């Protein structure tokens, strides 16, 4: 047997997640991964690299619990929210038997994680306004153990109606876990479902330091849920999911001054987003600018593939969403610095319609 044939069938067929980094490009304006545009400085304080780290570093857990207004028992820290996505499938889905469900267009790792683990995934396309098709979900729920709802949604940028989430949570009580992916919640904190944890034992919330905390390179994310869920996830997580330097920096980022600095960054991005939206609305090749509650803007563009390529060749790297259901002609633009926005505005304005 060839090495290829030795691999699991689902892995042979797997199309890996096309992360912004994997897609490459030679740019000087990187607006394709919803990162914060500037690096924040940190000093390492922990020097005990001869020892294994704590599995769940106490300072990180306590600081995040304080920030999120939950108890430390309701927090799990992992290698990015991406690891949280995977842990939930590993803890709750029997391969070949249970399924996960999500509503495209949405974040791409839900399907990739399910496929890698060998768990079936089902999709119920979002409605025309990208809200949940609750009837469609109800009709597809048989055998579903985990439902991912990204709010605000990547890449469309809107918040999922809280009333619909209530209906979903009632519909799934005792049957499935509902995961609210709040990777971008710092840009619209009032929309968080964290206050609902006491009402719903099957609600799980994913968070990250990769966006508003400006730490995508740190790889640090959080799962918030009731203790029973956290204890199950603790069984399947790796023994040392975070390195000592990661825990060190994460604890600093979640200190009181760290959180204040994050809130200032959020305000700066929201101001810049407003400016970018207004400019985009006056550019001929831009057909539609969708409202955003996040640090990115989805736009529908005339001849989007050619425009995407043209900007790419000028070193401006955006994210092409054209292949996602209902997003034909759509590009996603991360809100970066004032200078980066200007480069995008100038380049798009120069495109002929
Ligand atoms: N969920 C969503 C909706 C995201 O956009 C991302 C980042 N691409 C993640 C989760 C993963 O975040 P992390 O960097 O913490 O793994």
Automatic annotation (TrEMBL):
Keyword Zinc belongs to the record: no
Domain Aminotransferase class I/classII large per the UniProt entry, residue ranges: 29-348
Alphabetized Gene3D superfamilies for the sequence: Aspartate Aminotransferase, domain 1, Type I PLP-dependent aspartate aminotransferase-like (Major domain)
InterPro entries, alphabetized: Aminotrans_II_pyridoxalP_BS, Aminotransferase_I/II_large, HisP_aminotrans, PyrdxlP-dep_Trfase, PyrdxlP-dep_Trfase_major, PyrdxlP-dep_Trfase_small
Protein name in the entry: Histidinol-phosphate aminotransferase
Cofactors required: pyridoxal 5'-phosphate
Catalytic activity: L-histidinol phosphate + 2-oxoglutarate = 3-(imidazol-4-yl)-2-oxopropyl phosphate + L-glutamate
Annotated GO biological process: L-histidine biosynthetic process
Pathway note: Amino-acid biosynthesis; L-histidine biosynthesis; L-histidine from 5-phospho-alpha-D-ribose 1-diphosphate: step 7/9
UniProt KW keywords: Amino-acid biosynthesis, Aminotransferase, Histidine biosynthesis, Pyridoxal phosphate, Transferase
EC identifiers of the protein: 2.6.1.9
Cross-referenced PANTHER family: HISTIDINOL-PHOSPHATE AMINOTRANSFERASE, HISTIDINOL-PHOSPHATE AMINOTRANSFERASE-RELATED
GO molecular function terms attached to this record: histidinol-phosphate transaminase activity; pyridoxal phosphate binding
Location of N6-(pyridoxal phosphate)lysine modifications: 211
Family matches, as SUPFAM superfamilies: PLP-dependent transferases
Transmembrane segment boundaries: none
Keyword Cytoplasm on entry: no
Quaternary structure and partners: Homodimer.
Protein family according to the UniProt entry: Belongs to the class-II pyridoxal-phosphate-dependent aminotransferase family. Histidinol-phosphate aminotransferase subfamily.
